[in-house]
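Support reply, case 0932

Customer input (verbatim):
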Amino acid sequence: MAAGDADRAAGVVGEVALPTYADGRLAELERWFGWFEARGEVEGNAGLAVLGAWIGALTGHPVAAERRADAARRAPAGPARPGGGDPTEGPRALLRAALCRGGVEQMGADAEHALTLAPTGSGWQATAQLLLGISHLLAGRPDQADRDLFDAAEVGEDAGVDSAMLALAERAILAMARGEWQQARALAERAHAGARGAWLEQYPSGALLYAVLARLAIHRGDVARARDDLARAGRLRSLLTWALPHLAVQVRLELARNHLALTDAAAARTLLWEVDGLLSRRPQLGLLRDQAAELRGQLDTLRMDAVGAASLTPAEVRLLRLLGTHYSFREIGAQLYLSQHTVKSQAMSIYRKFGVSSRSGAIRHARDLGLLVE
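Our regenerated output:
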């Protein structure tokens, strides 16, 4: 770059971009691509344009991501590989799937095409399998999605790429939807154990895992841990833009679901407002629109004058899990080492926050929010 040799610089960046990304040096990557764009080198170089679009999408720069994606679409085919074929065809298809500009079904078609061209056992294969699984998930095919996400996690872990952690987080969400909380916890712990620090703390895709961990913490009554995970996810949320619309919307919906479970209506309302903005740009996101509508309905059922910005205390979350059993207040008190009067007072506080007047009403509301399962 110092010598102004753009062609040679492009070759070097192509070789070191992924390791640089893995090291968490995102600002350096953006600076490199800014240098290429200032000299007009991205236009006409499909490989460089694809790589630059990915970097823009993953660092929260949607305009740059789309500009580079358009350059990749216009660029001529790259030098033919041995045996013929455009070596940039697969990466271009994978980028189209990630940006999801043509809706869920087109996302699936692009991911499937990229999968047929990806080298076996490569990080590209894992990412293509991940995006294919997400497309099935958004199209309402959870069983097929789970199979593809299983493959994405297996290939990704072998290849040492972060798409494996995202696939595991997606599988945990599917497990929770089936009421299989133990499996969900095992999947989330596997993802957390395999994640690099840079991915968890800097990369927007880490927000989904934190949202999953928060939901699991709420389910077992660990409110302090849930709030910590929600704060970590929140710090990454701004990096999730309409450049990766499926992930940006899904993360916000999962965070909103967590805040509703904690009866934090204000935070949930803010997240759903952000979802509306994203869906206005990318309306064809399948089940995510339905999930957003469902969460808005749950938000509307909360009595804002009673809830405000309040949330369940750790003691109330512990009690809530026992309210769903056949035990009386006296028997619950014995298990929690509390007096019957204290249990009743905490239960009444939960009723007020949920806007209900009975134990059965609190149980129904908690199940709607995912705090309790049948």
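We compared this against your earlier run and they match. Two observations from our side: The longest helix spans residues 142-159. Residues 303-310 have pLDDT under 50 and may be disordered. Please reopen the case if you see a mismatch on your end.
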